[in-house]
Structures are given as structure tokens and as C-alpha cells.
Amino acid sequence: MAIIEPIPLDQLNTEKLASRLERAQELMVPDTLFIQIMAHAPGYAEALFDAMYQSHALGNVDHSLKEIIRVRLARLAKDDYFGGLRSKKAIDAGLSEDRIEAGCGDFEADDQFSDAEKWALKYAKLMYTEPKKLDTAYYDLGKTYYTEPEIMELGAFIAFHYGLQLFMRTLKVMPLSTT
């Protein structure tokens, strides 16, 4: 049971949250449960959902790659809530659970990932496990695969999602359903 109980859907301010609830049901990351919990602080519910949606579903970095990174980070954070969610957009684009598992495992030795994907997956890992390795040389290598705006997109995505995953873990939130 979650430490902070979700607000029932029929008690939410649907005037402000209706479009966000629809987008949550379409993407499933975050899902409506995230909005229901965050709705205890309505302004934050709106802003955090918008930022999560922007960072995950939009942008120029491949959504399926960001989905693999997101699940990898959830596991690193030991967050069962975000770790149990799957993006409908990524699944519809062909992302399989096997590929997610590979990205959460020994991706560096896995030929199914391009050098660019390996760089991004390692970036996500190093940001929290060995940040001193994210030096000029590491970013220069990243620039051979990604533009600077894409590196900023990845970095902000990684930092934002991992932080929220840690927060949700402390609340002991479990996903409503998995895909």
C-alpha cells in the first residue's frame, strides 16, 4: 500500500487534469496513478506530468531508447512503480521486453545495440554510479553520435526520471497494471 493514498479519479480537478489524464492513458508512463498521487499538490501534478511527458514522449532522441533507459534507471533506483510501467508508444514502435532486458543487462557486449545506443545506456548508468567518468572525453565521444541538444535531452531525461523514481520508491507506489 502506498504511503500517500492516490486521490480517486472522480475527485480530481478534471478541468486542469483532463488532458493530462488522457495523455497518461495513451502513453502509460507515467500512468494516471502518478497524477492521482501528485494531485495532492495540484500545481506540481501538472508541472511534473508535463515535464515527464515532454522528456519521455517528445524530443529528438529515439523514444524506445529512452524507454529502455527509463526502465534501467527504475531498476537502479529499485523503484517497482516505474519499473513495472511500459510505454505504449515504445511497444507500438516494436520495443520488446527482450530488448528492454538486454538494455538492462550487459548491453555493452550486445550486438543488437548500436554504438550510439551503448553510449546513451552507459551515460545513464555512469551518471549515478560513477559520475567522475562523465568528463570532457566522454561527452566528446557522445557528440560523435548525438547533437548537443540531444545530449542535453538525454541528460535532463536521465536526471529527472531517476529523481522521480527515487521519490516514488519512498512512497511505496506499485503500478496499477503492467503491459
Written description of the protein model:
The protein has 179 residues and is mainly α. It has one domain (17-170): AhpD-like (Up-down Bundle), CATH 1.20.1290. Helix content is 64%, strand content 0%. The chain has ten helices and no strands. It has helices at 14-27, 32-38, 42-57, 63-77, 80-84, 88-92, 97-104, 115-129, 136-142, 148-170. Helix 1 runs parallel beside helix 3 (42-57) and helix 4 packs parallel to helix 10 (148-170). It is elongated. The protein starts with 13 loop residues before the first helix and ends in a 9-residue tail after the last helix. 35% of the residues are buried. The mean pLDDT is 94.
Main attributes of the structure:
AhpD-like, 179 residues, mainly alpha, 10 helices
Oligomeric composition of the shown chains? single chain
Tell me the total number of β-strands.
0
Average pLDDT rating: 94
Going by CATH, the architecture would be Up-down Bundle
Under the CATH scheme, which class? Mainly Alpha
Largest sheet: none
| Helicity level | 55-70%
- What is the fold-level CATH name, i.e. the topology? AhpD-like
Q: What structural category characterises the helix and strand content?
A: mainly alpha
Number of helices: 10
